[in-house]
Amino acid sequence: MIFRILLLSWLCWTTTAVVAQSSASPLEVDPRYSAERLVKEVFATDRCETIFNVRQIGSNPDGIGYFTGSEDIVGFNRGIVLSTGKVQNAVGPNKRTNTGSQLSGLTPDPDLDRVSTGAVYDRSGIEFDFVPLEPVITFRYVFASEEYCEFVGAKFNDIFGFFISGPGFAGPYADSAVNIALIPGTRQSVSINNVNYRTNNQYYLDNEFAATKQQANCGGSTETGPRFQSIEYDGQTVILTATVKVQVCETYHIRLLVADINDSNFDSAVFLEAGSFDLGASVSLESEGGQDEPIVVYEDCTPTTMRVVRGADSQIDRDQTINYRLSDNSVATDTADFTAGPGTVTIPAGQMFAEIPISALSDTLQEGEEEAWLILDVPCACYTDSVRIVVREAAPLEVGLDDTFYYCPDNGSTLSVNVAGGVPPYTYEWSFGSREAEPVVAGTLPDTISVRVADACGEVQTRRAATQGSDPPTVEFPTQDLTACWGEEQQIVADLTGVGPFRLTYQIDAGAPRTVLISNAGRGSWPVTRSGDYHIIGVSDRACSTEISERLRVDFYQPVLNTSFTDPTCAGSNDGTISATHLPTVEPYTYQLDSSAVDGLAFTGLGPGDYLLQVTDALGCVDSAFVPIRDPESIQPIDLTCDQLRRPPLSLNANGGIPPYEYSVDGSNYFGGELWNTLTPGTYYQLSIRDAAGCEILQPEFFFPKAAQRYVALPAFFPQDAGGNVNIRLNYQVPRNQIFSYRWEPAELFDCPTCPNPTLTAPYTQDIDLILQDIYGCTDSLTTYVAVDGRTPFYVPNVFSPNGDGNNDHVAIFANSGLVERVVSFRVYTRWGEVVWSDADFAPNSAQRGWDGYTGGQPANTGTYLWSAEIRLYNGQIERQAGSTLLISE
């Protein structure tokens, strides 16, 4: 330890001149990124979001960060840096050989403690859980340290590791983890003592001061390295790749960390390449014919291939390993019916796809067509794909060639052979040397020719045929009448010579060429249903073809009717008309209207109805047309609505017919809507209505109403004396004859509840309702109330003289018998509140049910006494009163 300190003192002195020569570094470091952001946005390619539980290892955020720079510094241009000191210290130039800073001091670690030769300081890193989508996970990294080169071989060095745990691992570290930071091709961990200028130096890059290398006997060049101006660390590894095999869709945990050993001096760092931690990219399964085409394989035939194609998000510079399997709903199986590889395929770096051979297995069963689906075996992925496999038994190859081949020596002919079954594509070998499916031959052929046809599975069939030269065919058209009615069929007749069947080529009105087949030589025909100029331009038979030019005219006639009509002017009038024309065909013509013969196509004086018009020409061609004659909409009498009657001013208008309308009440003078201002509400008129077409109707006994929000006005209340009655008088807002009926409620209060002016007798104040209906059926409801005289319905004498003279001997309750039903209670008190007499539940107006002026059998003292009473009215209401009375002794 003392040696280390002394050496640093000398090294710090030797770097003074070098620092003066440094230039700005292209390496940039940003410590402000969180662990979550560094993993998900920088380090990992996590398309399906299967990374979670991201955490920083170490308490000081300055130990992790994001870096960018040119590729000749670290080896990749951006990524994550994990450092035992502040990540900003990584920025060049290399200012001294002992750069270091303390992050958090002593930091024990469950994994690093197992391999460390001393105490763990300033551990720094990240850890997270992930679910892989591919069976092999890789990422690229570089280890760099200030302990290079002078501490190579020391008993303790800064260390780092990538510890992964999960299904399939049984390593020596925490949770059975293994360290995947290994020297390529070995099981040895990457460290300062394992990768340096002496050991595994092919993986080491020197960045040390020249003086330090000489002082520490580190070997190497006497000059500084090419990264001296760009990065602080004295040495680093080349780009190394961590590789690990995992189980797809299982959950794993990885810890990526670096630490100082025994002290916080001399920083070390791990650089992780951005995007290199790739959990798997999308792929597609395709046939050779494209993504939507099935893969068809035949038994006893050569294999076809399935392509596994990289998705657009795949990194082409890396291998991509994909699992696939047979779908559970497949009929064909990959053990009994076909083979489809091992279920895993790797697309090599730089390639867009890998191919898997698909072969059908031969059996003796006739199973027909069977289907299977190969699907991506990544159930946790956010993508999926499948390809359909069709297993077929190849049908026997069948080749058909006519016994005799007719050909045209002068014009040339096309040979054809009918091929069915087998497995396409087919190959052809003709005896005269051609390999075309339909070769064109000219001149004279041998008396016999042959063709050999082979399919894709190697089945071969050979056929032979005799040859026969032939003259070109001819065609003539006899004179013929090609005239008929539309919808019928004509036959064009042709006289043919040659070897059938024949193919005639023709145009209609110079349109696109058409063809028709006629089987045999001699007279033949073909049907036509279209008018036009027919131009026959060619004829061919089994051997030859000939260009010709024959013209025929075909006509199909129909005297198509074109009708027009006018409806009657007014509803009920018979002045409708029909007129018609038709296409000219062949004269003479005959006409019918509703099956009756007529002379022409003009008709007047028609009432409403459906008329059938028909024309027939000299050929018997017929056309007919239905002509509907309809009454116009009739004028409708004025129909008032309740809404109109409730919204003054009154607005009246007719309906139907053709507006605008005019009105008259004398049958001669017509007016517009201004007429209503001259009419008297409540009066009946003989109303005539005329529309814009001059049509009229009479609306007899038309009642001219008045519009009002209320038919009558009721007072706020009707006053009535208690025990009395009141005669109702209404304030009419509309003519009285506009109101049809009256109904007063409660009906028992009125002597005539359906009369306009009834007499009302109410025992107490209450609501009353009036329901009116007018002559149009509209109703109106009004509510008011009757106010019965509000004075006290009972009284108690304020003086009495109980002397036995029969006059005013008792103090009792006297009440309006029309209002008061019962005395509930009656009490008399002294002025000090002592009850001297009481009674309850009796009818009023009985002096004998009052106090007689005695108490305890003795006359009471003269003076003032208090009383209280409760009475119940006929409507059930309880009234309470209190007062005083004077007892006089005489």
UniProtKB/TrEMBL annotation:
<dbReference type="Pfam" id="PF03160">
    <property type="entry name" value="Calx-beta"/>
</dbReference>
<keyword id="KW-0732">Signal</keyword>
<dbReference type="GO" id="GO:0007154">
    <property type="term" value="P:cell communication"/>
</dbReference>
<dbReference type="Pfam" id="PF13585">
    <property type="entry name" value="CHU_C"/>
</dbReference>
<dbReference type="InterPro" id="IPR049804">
    <property type="entry name" value="Choice_anch_L"/>
</dbReference>
<dbReference type="Pfam" id="PF13573">
    <property type="entry name" value="SprB"/>
</dbReference>
<keyword id="KW-0106">Calcium</keyword>
<protein>
    <submittedName>
        <fullName>Gliding motility-associated-like protein</fullName>
    </submittedName>
</protein>
<dbReference type="InterPro" id="IPR025667">
    <property type="entry name" value="SprB_repeat"/>
</dbReference>
<dbReference type="GO" id="GO:0016020">
    <property type="term" value="C:membrane"/>
</dbReference>
<feature type="domain" description="Calx-beta">
    <location>
        <begin position="292"/>
        <end position="379"/>
    </location>
</feature>
<dbReference type="InterPro" id="IPR038081">
    <property type="entry name" value="CalX-like_sf"/>
</dbReference>
<keyword id="KW-0677">Repeat</keyword>
<feature type="signal peptide">
    <location>
        <begin position="1"/>
        <end position="20"/>
    </location>
</feature>
<dbReference type="InterPro" id="IPR003644">
    <property type="entry name" value="Calx_beta"/>
</dbReference>
